[in-house]
Specification:
Elements (H helix, E strand, L loop, with lengths): L2 H4 L17 H7 L8 E2 L4 E6 L10 E6 L10 E4 L12 H4 L2 H11 L17 E4 L3 E2 L6 E2 L2 E4 L1
Antiparallel strand pairs: 1-2, 2-3, 3-4, 5-8, 6-7
Length: about 150
């Protein structure tokens, strides 16, 4: 069925909103991610997958916490899809070392088991560098990419 098949034919009729209801399984098969809201894992852990935003840049990433701590940043862990820590300043080191939490992160991000998640205790000598700023089309936002040279 096409949207045009259900639209009114009278020029005076205007549809302001069209809702489509799909089962979650169909969304998962389509590749559309159900992201940015907390979901409960069967073990009692909560996770939230946030989508990427290349304009910032922001990688797709997961936040994980026990249910009662979903709104407490320092009692969570989060990893980017490339395995690096997402919220480095709010990363709970003891949670990040737990094998189940790491396995949950890999599962919900659909990462291979060979992907190493950034170690909570890893410290290296690094140099921070940045790109030249770019601007939004209306020039109200500036974007600078910061990166580490290891």
């Amino acid at each position: 069925m096409k949207v045009t098949d259900i639209l009114p034919t009278d020029e005076n009729d205007v549809i302001e909103l069209i809702s489509v209801i799909l089962p979650q399984a169909l969304l998962e098969l389509s590749g559309i991610a159900l992201e940015s809201h907390w979901q409960q894992d069967k073990s009692g852990w909560m996770f939230r997958v946030d989508s990427e935003n290349p304009a910032i840049p922001l990688q797709r990433h997961v936040h994980i916490a026990k249910g009662k701590h979903a709104s407490t940043k320092n009692l969570q862990v989060s990893w980017n899809v490339d395995g690096t820590r997402h919220d480095k300043n709010a990363f709970n080191d003891s949670l990040g070392r737990q094998r189940y939490v790491q396995d949950l992160a890999r599962r919900v991000l659909k990462l291979d088991s060979t992907i190493t998640l950034e170690d909570a205790n890893r410290r290296e000598d690094v140099i921070v560098d940045h790109s030249e700023p770019t601007f939004s089309a209306d020039r109200t936002q500036a974007y600078v990419r910061f990166f580490l040279k290891v």
